[in-house]
Amino acid sequence: MENYTMEGRTYRYYGQGAPLYPFGYGLSYTTFGYRDLVLSPPVLPVCANLSVSVVLENTGQRDGEEVVQLYLRWEQSSVPVPRWQLVAFRRVAVPAGRETKLSFEVGAEQRATWAQDWHLEPGTFTLFAGGQQPEQQTRAPSAVLSSRFTVTGAARPLRGC
C-alpha cells in the first residue's frame, strides 16, 4: 500500500454522506440536556492545551448513563483532515433530575495534522460537546453544543512543543 490517505476509505473523510450507525449511536431510557460549554482560554498559543467544561443534566424520569463526546473540527487546514475528530469521551451516570459538571483537557497533540510529520497549525477550530456526533440525526434528541477557539503563533512540528 502506497497511498496512506484515508480520503474515500472511511466516513470521517467522505463528503456530506452520514454513516448508518455512527459512533455513539443508540437509545437510552431517559433524556439528557447539555449547557454551559466553556472553552478556556478561547485564544491559545499553538503548543497549549485547551480546558473544556460542560454541564450534563438528566432531564428524564429515570437514572441513566450518557457517553459525553467531544469532537474537534479544523475550520481550515493546509492538509486534508476529517470533518471532525473525536478527541475525548466519558461515560457518566446521572440520577434522574440531577446534573453534573464535567471537565476535559484537549491536548495540543489532538490538533496535530500529518504532512510527512506531525505538526501544529494556527487557525480557528470548533469544539462540539454532546451525546452524539455533530449533525447526527437520531430518534432520541441529544443537543450538541459548539464553541470556537483560536490558536495563535507560527506552525511548528509537534515534537518542537
TrEMBL record:
It comes from the Eukaryota. The keyword Hydrolase applies. Residues 66-133 form the Fibronectin type III-like domain. GO terms for molecular function: beta-glucosidase activity. InterPro entries: Cellulose_deg_GH3, Fn3-like, Glyco_hydro_3_C_sf, Ig-like_fold. One of its GO terms (biological process) is carbohydrate metabolic process. Its EC number is 3.2.1.21. It catalyses: Hydrolysis of terminal, non-reducing beta-D-glucosyl residues with release of beta-D-glucose. SMART domains: Fn3_like. Gene3D superfamilies: Glycoside hydrolase family 3 C-terminal domain, Immunoglobulins. Keywords: Hydrolase. Belongs to the glycosyl hydrolase 3 family. This is beta-glucosidase. It comes from Heliornis fulica (sungrebe).
